[in-house]
Amino acid sequence: MSDVMAEVVRLLTEVVGDDLLLEGEVGPETTFGDGLALESIEFVALVDRLRERYGGVDFPSFVAALDVDRIVNLTVGDIVDHIEAELREDVHA
């Protein structure tokens, strides 16, 4: 598991709670909707925590560029990939 993936899972655990989320059950293909049954307010709380942790990563633009079907099927891996891509860009900038 990458460092970013581990951090996203840790932040998800903070948002959802230990009793609802076991780290071993979350992987890159886990969806926020069907897989985690995250409510929209929980997703917003997760994005806030991610923004605090990865301040330079532009989450609003990332989500705004997605159509509704894509947002509904967004996976943990999609978020991790976006963070890692932006972190790589920052290193090369």
From TrEMBL:
Recorded superkingdom: Bacteria
Sequence ranges assigned to domain Carrier in this UniProt record: 1-87
InterPro entries registered for this protein in UniProt: ACP-like_sf, PP-bd_ACP
SUPFAM superfamilies tied to this protein: ACP-like (SSF47336)
Residues annotated as signal peptide: none
PROSITE patterns: CARRIER
Name assigned to this protein: Acyl carrier protein
Organism: Actinomadura rubrisoli
